[in-house]
Amino acid sequence: MYKILVVIFFLIGVNSSYAQQYYTWDEYGISFSLADDFKEVVNNIEEFSAVGDGMEMSIIPFADETVSTDDITVYTMAVAASLNLDKFDDINTIQLNGFEGGYAEGVIQGEKIFLMGLIDPKSDVNFFVIITFLDNDQNAIEEAIEICRSFQKI
């Protein structure tokens, strides 16, 4: 049931009352938003990471023009499996604001992990997005969904 709710929120959107910070990562031609309680921890060509109230988010770019939608799904599953999650929900294929990819979620040591593998079909740059927070934090779940939905090509 929980997985169905997350997918529904992800697909139809959530009306959010969170104050947002908008980011543009010019080197990669993407933008995204985070709640205003997030603070940048790392912002360089190899990684963007931020920490919010009970949440962490990282974006890891990688260049590989041969990655297809099927490949990113397999890669995303492999990354999720390598984390030795206590609980793991199967991956879903996603299309999101000019990106294609895969999405998985799981739990490890009481922390929920959202993992998104995104490919840009018009570029050789791809991304992994990792968001972690306490497993039963409904507010964080909604916030993580908003973060995921905010990714777009510029």
What is the compact description of this entry?
With 154 residues, this protein is an alpha+beta fold. It has helices spanning 2-12, 69-82, 138-150, and strands at residues 20-25, 30-35, 39-44, 47-52, 55-63, 87-96, 99-108, 111-119, 125-134, 152-153. 32% of the residues are buried.
Task: Explain what the structure shows.
With 154 residues, this protein is an alpha+beta fold. It has one domain: Mog1/PsbP, alpha/beta/alpha sandwich (Protein Transport Mog1p, Chain A). Helix content is 25%, strand content 48%. It contains three helices and ten strands, in the order αβββββαββββαβ. The chain has helices at 2-12, 69-82, 138-150, and strands spanning 20-25, 30-35, 39-44, 47-52, 55-63, 87-96, 99-108, 111-119, 125-134, 152-153. The strands form two sheets. The protein has a seven-stranded antiparallel β-sheet with strand order 3-4-5-9-8-7-6, sandwiched between helices. The chain is globular, with a radius of gyration of 14 Å. It starts with a helix and ends with a strand.
Structural features:
48% strand, alpha+beta, 154 residues, single chain, globular, Protein Transport Mog1p, Chain A, seven-stranded antiparallel β-sheet, 10 strands, three-stranded antiparallel β-sheet
